[in-house]
Amino acid sequence: MPPSPAVRILANAAAAVPVLLDEVRTLLATTARPLLGFATGGTFTTFLQALQQELAHGRLANAGNLLATHLDEYLGFPPGRAGGMVHELGTACPQLLAMLPKGMFFPVPHDDAPASLRAHEQRLQRAGGVGLQFLGIGRNSHLAFNEPGTAFDTGFHVTTLAETTRDDARARFAPNEPPTRAVTSGLATILLAKRLVLCAFGKAKAAAVAAMLQGTVAPACPASIVRTHSNVLVLLDRDAASLLHAGQSGA
Ligand code: GLP
After folding, report:
1. Is the pLDDT of residue 2 over 70?
2. pTM, rounded to two decimals
3. What separation in Å is there between the alpha carbon of 136 and the centre of ligand 1?
4. Closest Cα to atom 11, ligand 1: which residue?
5. What is the 8-class DSSP label of residue 131?
6. Which atom of ligand 1 is nearest to 137's Cα?
7. Of 72, 73, 88, 237, which one is the catalytic site residue?
8. pLDDT digits (tens, 9 = 90+) for 3-43
9. At 246, is the pLDDT very low, low, confident or very high (cuts 50, 70, 90)?
10. H or E stretch including 195?
11. What value, to the nearest 5°, has the Cα angle with vertex 137 and ends 25 and 30?
């Protein structure tokens, strides 16, 4: 019987911010040199802005020891290029960007050379692995850019984005077309993190959340893999939880 994630249903998305900041505080308090894996996407913007305030005002003990990374990057999007994931993280939380030249932020490669992907994965391992990984979920139930059908045993790899994923990214790249390919952390890589905290807010995520928590654990629903990890917290608002049937822990 796979372990069941802890699920908390919050009054609204804003209520996740203090919970996520507490997760960061706990990580910093319990690990000498913690590696925190950020997720991109609108789900995390408010939290990242709040984190910026905490870091800028020195309100996080041991923050100087923090190492950071993230889940995925569009091919051909180096850190300074608008639309890219590092650019997005740095816009919401400039303190993260300041860690880049100090070698304390490990950006996901933006090229498809197998050696770059291997080197990135090894860098994460040398740093002791990801202690806390934040995750969003696509409305097609993707995790990072692991689209439906991706095998569960993948490491960092280059992937072709699903049409729903590109549709969701369209506004971000307008008037240009969204990219078609990205480098993504694999599902096996994500599972290596010691703790996973997944957030989903809004009606558009409700079906993906129900499939993740109550459907079959299988590559057709990449996010369902979180049910095989033993240390997972899922934070939902009421809309995202609206298709869960009774009995889901915390529901
Ligand atoms: C993006 C990212 C994911 C993210 C998801 C949801 O494409 N690759 O890591 O969790 O889609 O994004 P949003 O939070 O904007 O809904």
Report:
1. no
2. 0.96
3. 5
4. 138
5. S
6. 10
7. 72
8. 679 999 999 999 999 999 999 999 999 999 999 999 999 99
9. confident
10. strand 195-200
11. 20
Q: What three-state secondary structure class fits 144?
A: coil
| 120 a catalytic residue | no
**229 catalytic per annotation:** no
* Active-site residue, selected from the candidate residues 70, 110, 120, 142: 142
Cβ contact 132:37 at 8 Å: yes
Is-contact 40 74, C-beta < 8 A?
A: no
User: Quick check: is 167 catalytic?
Assistant: no
Ordered by start, the domain boundaries in the chain are 6-199+229-236
Between CA 106 and CA 99 the distance in angstroms is 9
DSSP state of 4: P
Cα–ligand 1 centroid distance for 143 (angstroms): 8
Residue 41 has which token pair? 């996407």
- Ligand 1 shell residues, CB under 6 Å: 39-43, 71-72, 136-138, 144-145, 165
Q: Looking at the predicted structure, is the pLDDT value of residue 151 above 60?
A: yes
Between 3.40.50.1360, 3.30.565.10, 3.20.20.330, 3.40.50.200, what CATH number should domain 6-199+229-236 receive? 3.40.50.1360
Task: Select from 50, 86, 41 the least CA-distant residue to 208.
Answer: 41
Candidate list 23, 73, 88, 147, residue with the active-site label: 147
